[in-house]
From TrEMBL:
<dbReference type="InterPro" id="IPR005119">
    <property type="entry name" value="LysR_subst-bd"/>
</dbReference>
<protein>
    <submittedName>
        <fullName>LysR family transcriptional regulator</fullName>
    </submittedName>
</protein>
<dbReference type="Pfam" id="PF03466">
    <property type="entry name" value="LysR_substrate"/>
</dbReference>
<feature type="domain" description="LysR substrate-binding">
    <location>
        <begin position="2"/>
        <end position="104"/>
    </location>
</feature>
Length: 104
């Protein structure tokens, strides 16, 4: 069964989505009738069922928590990308810096 995908036209990988296939990272070309240049528009298009979207979970957490979307293809999620926060050495870390690092 083929599904319509919601394609982000400004995505770094174009019409290819990252997946893990057989334990290895793979880019799979997708197609769909709905295309959006912004992540917000693409994510909102998934809510009424215009297609399957591909987004970082933090971008869709709210609509997921509201049961407005469901996760699919979770067995093929690519490994997470490591993210490190670096700052200048200081005795007192500003509150906004601490909040940002805690969010990560």
């Amino acid at each position: 069964m083929r599904h319509q995908c919601i394609v982000r036209t400004a995505a770094q990988d174009g019409d290819a989505w990252p997946f893990a296939v057989g334990g290895k990272a793979a880019l799979i070309n997708v197609a769909g009738c709905f295309r959006a240049s912004s992540a917000a528009a693409a994510n909102e298009a998934a809510v009424p069922g215009l297609g399957i979207g591909n987004a970082p979970f933090w971008q869709v957490r709210t609509v997921f928590d509201q049961d407005r979307i469901e996760l699919v293809l979770t067995d093929f999620e690519p490994p997470p990308i490591p993210l490190h926060a670096l700052s200048a050495a200081m005795r007192i870390v500003p509150a906004k810096t601490k909040l940002f690092v805690d969010l990560l």
